[in-house]
Design goal:
The structure is a single chain. The protein is mainly alpha-helical. The chain has a domain of 276 residues: Serine Threonine Protein Phosphatase 5, Tetratricopeptide repeat (Alpha Horseshoe). The protein has 15 helices and six strands. It has a two-stranded antiparallel ribbon. A two-stranded antiparallel ribbon has the order 2-6. The chain has a two-stranded antiparallel ribbon with strand order 4-5. The longest helix is centred in the first third of the chain and has 26 residues. It starts with 44 loop residues before the first helix and ends in a 19-residue tail after the last helix.
Length: 442
């Protein structure tokens, strides 16, 4: 059920700096490293949470940077960013082809947020911490950080433990953190945090843990216009929206929409979620035409973590899984017609004659909705696991089918990093990463 309430939430992040709504200007000087115990002071708690927020945004761009290529969401036009001397390995998710950054920053985002919540619980005591607004925010951030790990990592390792698990370990942790955020947020009277945690729970329970009835219960409590985003700034390069930066004519031109699903889709529909513009140049590392994405317009553009439209698509998928394909199509078309094309008209509705066609529309709609947000690789992997890998159902699967010689590289999840294997005494150096679910042995 859709709610008429419209809420937009956005939590600012700048490492070590807290912002409050005010007409005042603040000049901030970075004091450098501080002793850990100083962070126990309640005057530092806002900065502790904003540090966790910054870590989350860094994690998102690192994961999206690799996963969008691996899931064929974009065409690589070469490589200037990061490693120009290394031959391009498009979407290569093998451990020896990746650096440690994505694994390290994703684990850091989880640890910083969870440690912030632990700190508040210990310093304030159970009674005060149970209604402390910064504790609610920290728990929400920990939920998002664990969800990113669950959607992207092949294997779970928590703080050097010998207990290894699948990605569901992270997703269960995300569920617990979001549930705690709901409790503390309600006690603190912070209903925006509560709604954000409801959205997080819906995205974890349904697409993550396959508990669709519970997912729908939470999705129903999220308004159509809800949005919570990872926030980026133009102040420092490690705070940039890299999804914009990689495809920009200046400086990189490493990504192009050319020869991708979105090239033709946007020309046919004018859907702003898939917008691109021809920069009329082939001055890219591989000499491909530079079709620059227009979903993001600058390095300070924010990236969705959860939206109301995503909640509606979760409800639609739940209907499909219950065999109610006509109800699912109604929801899909409500999402589509709520979006104005570049020509100013609502997007055209989709039609289906059976459940198989409805599945195809649902999966394509999620692909469009999550473009350049680091979410589609997880969708592709779970749909293959569910046996939906026929080309009529799963978008992008046929793109892999055309390249059987590289499907072994596209693992569709991040392997454990060398930094973890080398520092964790419980690992053997001959650890074997999971294979791609679509690798045919060639």
């Amino acid at each position: 059920m859709r709610k008429p309430v419209k809420i937009f939430t956005r939590f600012m992040l700048i490492a070590g700096v807290a912002f409050v709504t005010s007409s005042c200007d603040f000049e901030v000087t970075n004091p450098g490293p501080v002793q850990d115990e100083f962070l126990d002071d309640d005057g530092a708690h806002a900065s502790v949470v904003e540090g966790a927020n910054f870590a989350l945004s860094t994690s998102l761009w690192q994961l999206a940077y690799h996963s969008e290529e691996s899931a064929k969401q974009i065409t690589r036009s070469g490589r200037n960013f990061c490693c120009p001397k290394v031959p391009p390995r498009v979407g290569d998710m093998r451990r020896d082809a990746l650096d440690n950054n994505a694994w390290n920053v994703a684990q850091q985002a989880r640890f910083v947020a969870e440690d912030a919540s632990r700190r508040f619980d210990e310093v304030l005591g159970e009674d005060e911490a149970s209604s402390y607004v910064y504790n609610a925010r920290a728990k929400k951030l920990a939920g998002h950080a664990n969800r990113l790990l669950g959607e992207n990592m092949c294997t779970a390792v928590i703080d050097g433990s010998e207990d290894l698990g699948g990605n569901d370990v992270y997703l269960e942790r995300a569920k617990e953190r979001f549930e705690e955020a709901v409790q503390v947020g309600e006690a603190a009277g912070e209903m925006q945090i509560v709604e954000a945690a409801h959205a997080g729970l819906a995205s974890v329970l349904g697409p993550g843990l396959n508990r669709w009835d519970e997912a729908v219960d939470y999705a129903n409590q999220v308004s159509d216009d809800f949005s919570i985003q990872a926030v980026y700034t133009s102040s420092e390069s490690d705070q940039y929206n890299i999804m914009y930066d990689l495809g920009a004519d200046d400086p990189w031109g490493d990504w192009t929409v050319y020869n991708s699903f979105y090239e033709e889709y946007y020309e046919e529909t004018g859907d702003p979620r898939a917008g691109w513009v021809d920069r009329e140049t082939d001055d890219t590392p591989e000499g491909l035409p530079l079709y620059e994405q227009q979903k993001f317009s600058g390095v300070a553009d924010n990236v969705n973590m959860n939206t109301g439209r995503e909640m509606r698509l979760i409800e639609a998928e739940a209907e499909l899984r219950n065999g109610n394909w006509e109800e699912a199509m109604d929801i899909i078309n409500e999402v589509r017609t709520d979006i104005q094309s570049e020509g100013g008209e609502p997007l055209e509705e989709r039609s289906a004659e059976n459940v198989e066609e409805a599945w195809g529309h649902l999966l394509e709609e999620r692909r469009i909705e999550f473009w350049l947000e680091g979410r589609f690789m997880n969708d592709l992997r779970r749909w293959i696991d569910d046996g939906l890998e026929g080309t009529d159902n799963v978008p992008a699967y046929d793109e892999f089918e055309r390249m059987p010689d590289v499907t072994d590289r596209n693992r569709l999840c991040f392997p454990i990093a060398d930094s973890e294997i080398n520092s964790n005494e419980h690992f053997d150096q001959d650890w074997e990463d999971p294979w791609s679910p679509i690798y045919d042995g060639n």
